[in-house]
Amino acid sequence: MRRVADGASAAVAAPLAGTVPGDRDRAGKRGRLLGVAAAVVAVLAVAAGVLTGVVGTRADGAAPAGPAAGPPTSTAPDGAVIGDVTTADPCSLVDPGPLHAFGAASFLRDEARFAACAVSIARPDGTTATYSLTFQTQAETEDLWLGLRQEEAGYTVVSFEPADGYCDELVELPDRNVLRLAAQPQRGWTGTQDMCAIVGAARATALARLEGSGVGTRPPLTDGGPLAGIPACGLLTPADLVAVIPDVTQPQARFADWGCDWASTSGDSTVELVYYRSLPLSAYLGTRADFAGRPGLVHPAEGACWIPFVQRSYSVEGSERLETVQLTYSGPGPQAELCRAATALATAAAGRLPPPG
């Protein structure tokens, strides 16, 4: 059993209106949990005295600097493949061309988490699927050692049994970063084999580009606004978290500090906070709400509550896009309580950001 995270739907900003919610990286969302592995990690961490407080670490191993803007995890170790995480472009390892074998494939520009690139695949019958490539660190990739490990083109590829139509693989990089390649059906598409075939075709592209031109670059996301330079783990404090997560772990920073995870060592509660670029809020399910002067949504789901709120609005080829902070609180208890807790956390996080733009 493993936790499935950072997959196709997880990498793409959240539930479109008229679809079933499922675009959040919630622990166990697609039925594979890291039960035993997570418990072992927690026990070892407690034994080492790691979980004595909610101080946390950033993706580069340094203590979080709070919400002050500044460049996150600027450079990977020697021999790195990704290099400067602030300019590494996940779309440089993606080509919709080979995916046309499965349907009309096109980039989902500015519709994915900061560390991901997504492609929409549409069939003539109106059904769709989403493929994504997400940059991750080894530290955040909890299922790295739980799959079938094989060598291809000099890289270790980790594959898993597909579940609920979702198929994903990991590619280990020599700089201790990881690529997660994932595909998930949407809008009526059936067939897990299709999803794994999509991932296989996309993997061939990613490996060829790693061997050829390598990881390309893009302008720093901070060129548009300050959010990408603010470590996500600094947006929530121990005081914020203790009210909703008993025995909370240290924060686990995600790639480039563009996300953060907290969990309970004695229960099932988790909080995930991730930076996304997305469509306008009207494209998504949820009840409108305000978070420290920022518009957002509250969307209940089974065992969780998902909240996106807007930090910045901008235009791409005449179409509105948003930079959002997306928070998911998962745990036991009535739905109303989950959403009240999620709302309190999202409001606290929003209050620590600079004024929206």
Feature tags:
357 residues; alpha+beta; 2 domains; membrane
Series of H and E elements: HHEEEEEEEHHEEEEEEEH
Spatial separation of the terminal alpha carbons: 42 Å
Tell me the radius of gyration.
19 Å
The oligomerization state is single chain
Order of strands side by side in the largest beta sheet? 1-2-3-7-6-5-4
Mean pLDDT: 81
- Structural class, from secondary structure content? alpha+beta
Q: Quickly count the helices.
A: 5
Helical coverage, percent range: 10-25%
Number of domains: 2
Largest sheet: 7 strands, antiparallel
- The total beta strand count reads 14
Low-confidence stretches: 1-9, 13-80
| Outline | globular
- Beta fraction: 25-35%
Protein name: DUF3558 domain-containing protein
Biased composition (Low complexity): 61-80
Region (Disordered): 61-82
Transmembrane segments: 33-55
Concise synopsis of the structure shown:
Residues 61-82 are annotated as: Disordered. The chain is α+β, with helices and mostly antiparallel strands and 357 residues long.
Task: Write structural notes for this entry.
The chain starts with 7 loop residues before the first helix and ends in a 6-residue tail after the last helix. The chain contains five helices and 14 strands. The chain is α+β, with helices and mostly antiparallel strands and 357 residues long. The radius of gyration is 19 Å and the shape is globular. Residues 1-9 and 13-80 have low confidence and may be disordered. A seven-stranded antiparallel sheet has the order 1-2-3-7-6-5-4. A seven-stranded antiparallel sheet has the order 8-9-10-14-13-12-11, with helices on one face. The longest helix is centred in the middle third of the chain and has 20 residues, at 192-211. 47% of the residues are buried. The protein has two domains: 8-68 and 226-351, no CATH class; 90-211. The chain has helices at residues 8-11, 35-47, 192-211, 238-242, 335-351, and strands spanning 104-107, 116-122, 128-137, 148-152, 155-159, 167-172, 177-186, 252-253, 259-263, 270-278, 287-291, 294-301, 304-316, 319-330.
